[in-house]
Every structure is written in structure tokens, then in C-alpha cells.
Design a protein that fits this description.
The chain is an alpha/beta fold and about 550 residues long. It folds into two domains: about 375 residues, no CATH class; about 90 residues, 2-Layer Sandwich (Transcription Regulator spoIIAA), CATH 3.30.750. The chain is built from 22 helices and eleven strands. A hairpin with a 2-residue loop joins β5 and β6.
């Protein structure tokens, strides 16, 4: 009887928590941000505009309950635009609709791969990749987004197809822009820049994407974009009309699109399955780790469960016509700032999206594409801002080399080759600094245990390729009160390992274990940055 009463009490507490006003209000706040971003990311990816909304709805209404992460928002991300658009174009071979349906099959398969990764407990995968290569990948994505969205923001066309060619054609696009569309695009971008620098209560109460829509709607009415027409400025004839607005189906069910599995085992499909699974998982895990640091309650995500949830979500959205999802950092940060307490806020954000697209599709149709493009250009700039280059330089010249190599190779080829190029440069640097091939993938150490204290003395070196094995060793010491890592005898320790060790201190601290790192004073830092690579003194 007591057990039944206890179970009933727990169920009541959970229901009360799920219906908390804080999570409902946070979900509504995130919905206001997510709607325009979902639409913009869809169109930039070569998908129907509703695709990103499908993703956020599934991410909210279904993936929330995996509870791998308490405060992250699941939905489409700007970081996967490049892969999605590349898949549509390469698989479609000129037929974008066929490319879209073939890409949906790829997303389903990538989701299954992510489920397997979670079941195999590969949630620590994020700690393997060199930090500078990951930042370089994100910066390259930002540059590509800017290049692809500038023509949409200006209402211009260009013959260039690759990002570098598009950037070189910016002067030509400025000469041939559509004035009314460009006014909407540039004013939206200016508002985003202005809004991002404000800290008052008014600016916090109104999310920047919502402010852009409040500006874009009157301009859309002023320029009569809902009607096909021409206008003349300085003797030039320009055309505007509904083609410059979001095209959304009036019936949500009619927008559901089944995937085409006919090319799933082709080399192109396999390449994109790997890219979606690898890059999507990497971005998702990085976001979850970042949000854990912002969580007021200092909860740690279960990365493997979160990866399984995202994988299930991707398999579902691929079956209905949606974009791939990740744990998205911008919306998740906004979720915390709005006062979210639990995973329920992600559920409510998906619920509000569903309600809005079902009952107010005509309002969504009035959103100018130029305004959405401006949001993406702004997002791209934040990924590839001068601060990102400065940050790599401050960590060390070698990190800047990895960062820039990843960017250049990505722009010239694709994301997979770009991240591989960054890894290769990092491997060569590790070998140059005295890490032997034998020690590259397995760290050497001496372990001494005295009572409730463990002292681990590393030999040879600690780099990104052998860090995961060393991290597993550290986590196995869960019964002690103190762990001391001594690096005084290593030849080299890289930036990625030092950064990961610092994050691990917080994880152990929450378990009541003191993790400390000693011996760096016996090594030469490669820069003044606190997590700069260190090399043995000669």
C-alpha cells in the first residue's frame, strides 16, 4: 500500500513539474525564436519551408521524453545546412525534388547510425576531435551560409555555384540587387546587429528574430509582395511577388513526404550518411556539453541517451519530410535565459509550433525570404567572425594553422574532407613534438593509489588521439576522493586535452571528487592562453 502511495505521489510530482509555468513560458519564448529560424534553415537547405518545422515539432513532442539532456532544444541547425543542400544537389543531379526525397532516406539511415552510436556508448566521441578543427569546421559552415544567403537577402542572382565564387561575385550582386527585397534584407540584418548589442529588459523580452518579423511584415505590406507586379527605379524594371515570400502548404498533412530509398547504398548516399551522423552528432554533443555548463542546477546530460534520442528523432523526421535535428545551442541558450527548468520546455516549444502552423499558415506565408536570409547571414557571421580567428591565434600559431586548414579544405571540397584535413595537421604536429607512433593512440602512465587518493603520472604525452582512453581511466577511479594528474614527464600535451581535462574537473566536482592537474610548470607553453599546448623544456 505504501509503495502504491509513493508511486502515486511521484507521478503527481512529475505531472506538476511537467505543467510548470516556467517551462511553458520558456517553451513559448523559444517557439518565437524557432519559427523563423526553422523556415530559413529549411529553404537554405533546399528543403520545403515546412521541413524545419516538422523537425522542431518531432524534436519537441517526441525526443524530449528521452531526457538525455534537460534543457537543450532539439531542432534543425544552421550547421547542417551545408550538408543538407549538398546532398539534395548531388543526389538530385538537377532534380531538386528527387534529391530531397533521396536525402530523406539518408537522414533516416543517419538516424539509425546515431542510435547505434548511442547504444555503443560513443557519447564521448566529441572529445576525440581537435578543438581547433571543430571550430574551423563551424567557421567554414558560417562562410558557406553567408555566401549562399547573400543573394536571397538582396533579391539578386549569380551564376556562381561554389561559396568562394559567390563571395567573389558580391560586387556584381550589389549592382543587380532588387531594391525592395534588399531593403527588407539589409534592414533586417541591421536590426539583428543592433539587437545583439543591447542588454536592457525590453530587448531581452523581445527575441531578435521576432523583432525582425515585426519589421519585415510592414515592409512586406508596403511593397505588396503578396501580388505579382513590377516597379521602376531610375529606369530599371524590377519584379516582386509571392516568390519572395515563404511558401507554406495550407494543410500540414499534405506536406508530409516519404523518403526514396532507391539510392541508399550508393557511394554518394553513404558519404552523406557519414557526414550527417558524424557532424550532426558532433554538433549535438558539443551543444549539450555547453548547455550543461549554463544549467543553473548543474545537471550533466547523459550523452549516450541524448544521442539515441536525436537518432530516433532523425529517423522519424526523415520518414515525414523533415530536416535532420541536433541539440541546438542558440535556442537552448535562449531556453535557459527564459527560465526553463526541465525537458518540458522543449516539449512546449514543439507544441506551440504545431499549433501555429496548423491554425495560422497564412500568417507564415507573409514572411519575406529576405528577412529569413538576413537571420542566416547573421548566424553565419557569428560562426565565422574575426573573433574566432583571433581566438585560435591566442591559443597558438599551430591551432590557427589547424583552424585555417580546416576552413580552406572545407570551402574547396566538403565538410568531411575539411575535418579530416584538420585532424591530419594535428596528427603531424603531435609527431613533430615528440609523440611516438606507439604512444599516439594509447597514453603511457604510472598509477599510484594511497587511501582515497590516486596519483597518475603520465609519460610520453597526452594528445587528442589518446585522450579518450585516458579519460576512461580517470572515470574508472570513481571510488576515490582525489585524483592528481601529473604531466611533468610528458614530451607534449595538446590544447584539446588540457581543455577537456578542465571540463572534466567540473564533472568530477559534482561527484565529490577533486581532480587536479600538476606539472605544467615543467613544460613550455606554446602561448599565453591558459589551455595552450605545452612542450617539454629542452
Amino acid at each position: 500500500m505504501k509503495k502504491n502511495a509513493s508511486d502515486a505521489s511521484a507521478a503527481k510530482a512529475n505531472a506538476s513539474s511537467f505543467l510548470s509555468k516556467a517551462d511553458i513560458m520558456a517553451g513559448f519564448s523559444v517557439f518565437l525564436i524557432a519559427l523563423p529560424l526553422c523556415l530559413g534553415i529549411s529553404l537554405a537547405s533546399g528543403f520545403p519551408s515546412i521541413a524545419g518545422v516538422f523537425t522542431a515539432i518531432v524534436g519537441g513532442l517526441f525526443v524530449s521524453f528521452f531526457k538525455g539532456s534537460q534543457l537543450t532544444i532539439k531542432g534543425p541547425a544552421a550547421g547542417l545546412i551545408v550538408i543538407a543542400l549538398g546532398a539534395v544537389e548531388e543526389l538530385g543531379q538537377g532534380d531538386n525534388f528527387r534529391g530531397y526525397t533521396l536525402t530523406l532516406a539518408v537522414i533516416v539511415a543517419a538516424g539509425i547510425v546515431q542510435i547505434l552510436m548511442g547504444l555503443l556508448k560513443w557519447g564521448d566521441l566529441v572529445d576525440f576531435f581537435p578543438a581547433s578543427a571543430v571550430h574551423g569546421m563551424l567557421a567554414a559552415i558560417g562562410i558557406i551560409i553567408i555566401a549562399k544567403q547573400l543573394p536571397v537577402m538582396m533579391g539578386a542572382t549569380t551564376q556562381a555555384k561554389d561559396p568562394i565564387g559567390m563571395l567573389l561575385h558580391i560586387p556584381e550582386m550589389l549592382e543587380n540587387l532588387n531594391p525592395h527585397i534588399a531593403i527588407i534584407g539589409f534592414s533586417s540584418l541591421a536590426l539583428l546587429i543592433f539587437w545583439s548589442g543591447r542588454k536592457g529588459k525590453f530587448f531581452k523580452a523581445i527575441p531578435a528574430p521576432l523583432a525582425v518579423l515585426l519589421l519585415a511584415f510592414p515592409l512586406e505590406i508596403l511593397y505588396r509582395l503578396d501580388v505579382d507586379h513590377e516597379y521602376i527605379i531610375n529606369g530599371h524594371i524590377y519584379h516582386t511577388g509571392p516568390d519572395f515570400l515563404v511558401n507554406l502548404p495550407s494543410n500540414l498533412l499534405s506536406a508530409i513526404q516519404l523518403p526514396d530509398f532507391s539510392q541508399l547504398i550508393s557511394s554518394t548516399s553513404i558519404k552523406y550518411i557519414i557526414m550527417f551522423a558524424l557532424v550532426g552528432s558532433l554538433e549535438s554533443l558539443l551543444s549539450s556539453k555547453a548547455i550543461d555548463l549554463l544549467d543553473p542546477q548543474k545537471r550533466n546530460s547523459n550523452m549516450n541517451r541524448d544521442l539515441i534520442g536525436v537518432g530516433v528523432g532523425n529517423s522519424l523526421v526523415g520518414m515525414v519530410g523533415g530536416l535532420p535535428m541536433i541539440s541546438e545551442i542558440v535556442r537552448s541558450s535562449a531556453n535557459i535565459n527564459a527560465g526553463a527548468k526541465s525537458y518540458a520546455s522543449n516539449f512546449y516549444h514543439g507544441l506551440f509550433l504545431l499549433i501555429f502552423v496548423v491554425f495560422f499558415p497564412d500568417l507564415i506565408h507573409r514572411i519575406p525570404l529576405a528577412a529569413l536570409a538576413a537571420m542566416l547571414v547573421f548566424t553565419g557571421f557569428r560562426l565565422a567572425s574575426p573573433k574566432a580567428f583571433k581566438h585560435s591565434w591566442e591559443i597558438g600559431k599551430e591551432q590557427l594553422l589547424i583552424f585555417c586548414t580546416t576552413i580552406i579544405v572545407t570551402l574547396l571540397t566538403d565538410l568531411l574532407l575539411g575535418i579530416l584535413a584538420g585532424i591530419c595537421i594535428k596528427l603531424l604536429q603531435s609527431l613533430y613534438h615528440g609523440i611516438s607512433l606507439k604512444d599516439l593512440f594509447k597514453a603511457k602512465y604510472d598509477l599510484h593509489k594511497t587511501g582515497q587518493k590516486v596519483r597518475i603520472e603520465l609519460k610520453s604525452g597526452l594528445v587528442f588521439t589518446n585522450y579518450l582512453g585516458f579519460q576512461k581511466l580517470l572515470r574508472a577511479q570513481s571510488e576515490v576522493e582525489e585524483i592528481e594528474v601529473n604531466l611533468s614527464r610528458v614530451n607534449f600535451v595538446d590544447h584539446t586535452s588540457l581543455h577537456n581535462l578542465d571540463r572534466l574537473k567540473d564533472v568530477f566536482s559534482q561527484k565529490g571528487i577533486l581532480l587536479s592537474v600538476h606539472g605544467l610548470d615543467q613544460l613550455n607553453p606554446r602561448s599565453a592562453h591558459p589551455f595552450a599546448a605545452h612542450k617539454r623544456k629542452k
